[in-house]
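ENTRY TYPE: paired fold submission
RECORD: A
CONTENT: sequence, then structure tokens
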Amino acid sequence: MITSLLKNFSIVLLFGACVSSSHSSKQEIPGKATDNVDLIQPVLDSNNSPQSLMDLPQTQYGGFVLKPGFYETEFKTYCLQPGTPDPRQGDAYLQEPITGYRKDILESVLLNSRSKQDIDQRNIQLLLWSVVSGSDFNSLSYAVQSDATKLLTPKQIYELKGGIVGTIKSVSYSAGIMNANKGMQELFSKGINSYETFEKLAVNKEQANIIKKGIKYDQWYKQNENYYVRYFPVSYKKVRIQVYVPDSLLDSDGKSNGEYVVFDPTGLQAVPAFTNAQRLGIGAPVIQIIREIIQVNKHPIPPKKLPQKKNPKEYV
């Protein structure tokens, strides 16, 4: 009897240990975007060469209508957290929605940048730095202010000019990030025009610190629609995104549960999985080629339409 009880007790302990291990492995990776992480990684043949996402059809919003296969494309990215290290080779990244201070304005800039490929990436970055640091919009150069009107609505411009009171102090930041934000405000207020001066303050060139262990840099992240995504930052200015779509995901009509499966990273942010490196806002693809447009009924974050200019007094 005693032997039997000990045997059963050991089985219970073993089962409990397995459950605990399963839960802890999911908690290894921080952030909302990891809720659906599949630790059983897709197996790709070493000879598989990724196709370009740009070869796929796109929706009227600019998302990619997925088909089975292995894909890759580079996207422009933007520093959203001044004062943190530049990402380096081997840093693991994953995607999350934009959060925090003036996130709706950040989303609008990133989403609308897709259709404004003529705007200098540096001007978009300067605009984003001014937004996240809480700097005075009126201190921006004429060129950046002009480009801002192409990316934001009059109401949003009015808010950035101080028409709607908002405070960055309500956001919890580390001392380094707060110092960088204050430094940004000072540079803008002094009318500094050198992009390199802002970059030196915003992008820390020191090696990022590892704050989580046990996470692979090439970890695939399973999405709600059962395809996989992973991110490889080149620098704070560019990220290489890979997408894997299993053969069994779509039916003969190229749909899943009657809907097209659409991948659209623009307007999201890529965040470090185990270091304190930059948070990157994702903009337009580096190379813009439109093959085919497919009309879809649903889209998670449609681009903000820019209405005709109105009198700012209407927003008081």
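RECORD: B
CONTENT: sequence, then structure tokens
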Amino acid sequence: MNVRYTLRARADLDAIYTDLDQRNPTAAQAVKDLIERRIRQLGRFPLMASPTDEPGILELSIVRYPYKVYYELMGDEEVWIIHIRDTRRKSWEGN
């Protein structure tokens, strides 16, 4: 499956990466690599995450770190990353 990002998800990722780089540039790359690796895994294992209360939306936790990736499946061909949240910040109110 192809993994695609909404504009919002890309902006989320940019904000998270900027925050990581500012707080600890040395450790930031390892965390960024883990986030990207877990998201890439969705292309092979699209059902590896838990469903949410929102119909059709799944939630992938980035283990050991406070990040959650929300996504939906588009048929048998695409995974759409719709939001990436730092759980230390304001809760997600949906789309």
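NOTES ON RECORD B: The radius of gyration is 13 Å. The chain has one domain: 2-85.
STATUS: closed
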